[in-house]
Amino acid sequence: MGCCNRRCGLIAGAVVGVLVAILGGILIPVGDNIIKGTVKQEAVIEPGTTAYENWAAAGVKVYRQFWLFEVMNPLEVLDYGAAPVVIERGPYTYMTRYLAKDNVTFHENDTVSFLLPNGAIFEPSMSVGTEEDNITSLNLAVAGAYSVVPPELHILIDKMIYSTNSSLFQRRTVKELLWGYNDPILKQFVGFFPDYNKTYDGYYNVFTGKDDITKVGQIDMWRQSSLGFWNDTYCDMINGTDASSFAPFVDKEEPLFFFSSDICRSVSASYEQTVNLKGIDVYRYSLLPSTLASPVDNPDNKCFCSNMKVTKNCTLAGVLDVSTCQQGQPIYISLPHFLHGSESLVKDVLGLNPNEEHHKTFLDVEPTTGFTLNFAKRIQVNMMYGPSDVITVLKNVKDFTILPLVWLNETATLDDETADMFKKELLSRIQMLETAEYSLIGVGAAIFLMCIIAYLIVRKSHNQSKVA
């Protein structure tokens, strides 16, 4: 009788072990649903959610580092048509995006509109010099007038250059070149980023994700529903978010799309690797070389090519002509030092050294929430000038030249306090739930196996005693 009770108890123990393991297995989908539900709820852009708190405020400090290109041989370029030789000066660092979104308005179609104030505060401790450092750079008025003014009126441009004692190159302070100065030729304020501190980026209208979490943060409108810069439906599309966040539960097999007003177009980034950022595993996404490839290699870029002469019949890779969104100014956007660009770009301007590690753009995205926790957006601003039989300072120029003016690295990363909070509020809870799930499965399986083994031993012992 006692032996029977023992075997019955072991069988019951095995059943309990199975039930515990089943409970652990049941908790996996239940726990996943709890996690997904919580993340989806907190990812919606509406007052009271984690996403809204990070989205509405200025949040993490964003810095823009500028490296200006100084022309070392301006006289040789003017007198003999020599290739410009440049060196980069910098970084000159500014804190930007420190102002909260303005005019935030929620709409009935589950979108929210806002304006993004621009602002820049110089950070001397993160810079190599002062804003008063002098740089020899391209004369923006001369290069701009060369492209904007019809050739038959170039004689007037030549007279204005002569009367103001101007030239193809000029010496200005870092502050003047970046943020603007009164130009003697144009009689107006010009610079790489004139009036930046007094402007807004926007109007933006984005989806809140309330009706469909996969659309959270996606841009419905920037100024208008279609860009209208490229005279093409495909190129004028606004795809994705502003890159500060994406829909939760990121699939690394799929590219991430985002729109950048700096380059007047949408781009995509592809998964590169998983990296650890302050104890948090994030997916690193980067731009592919095909992003600025020539239409010969990437036909999707055909509608971004408009100037057949400068781009050598659209065979030039690595630069994007954004003159259509810059009031006709001959501005070309590229990656720093013409990374992934045609070999001719580096040969026509000497002193450049493209480097993948230092010059690529990347985003570090936390896959569960879709939040971008670290990024480096790197772009270069270039300006074009070319030969002329009329404008004296351009008479020795042999061919169209795309000259680098400045490249910038816009960066932000979560601080230690935010990282600790992120790990505590989200990751630790997920890990605790996963530990509980797999612990129950493990404990249940162990109880089941021990009871079964003990049962077999007891039964064998009982059978042997009966035989004896």
Secondary structure topology:
Layout: H1 2-43, H2 50-56, E1 62-71, H3 74-80, E2 86-96, E3 102-107, E4 111-117, E5 120-122, E6 134-138, H4 140-148, H5 154-163, E7 169-173, H6 174-179, E8 181-182, E9 189-190, E10 200-207, E11 219-222, E12 256-260, E13 265-277, E14 280-287, E15 319-321, E16 331-334, H7 343-348, H8 356-359, E17 362-365, E18 372-385, E19 401-413, H9 416-467
Antiparallel strand pairs: 1-2, 1-19, 2-5, 3-4, 4-10, 6-7, 8-9, 10-11, 12-13, 13-14, 14-17, 15-16, 16-18, 17-18, 18-19
Organism: Cyprinodon variegatus
Pfam families: CD36 (PF01130)
Catalytic activity: hexadecanoate(out) = hexadecanoate(in); tetracosanoate(out) = tetracosanoate(in); tetradecanoate(out) = tetradecanoate(in); (9Z,12Z)-octadecadienoate(out) = (9Z,12Z)-octadecadienoate(in)
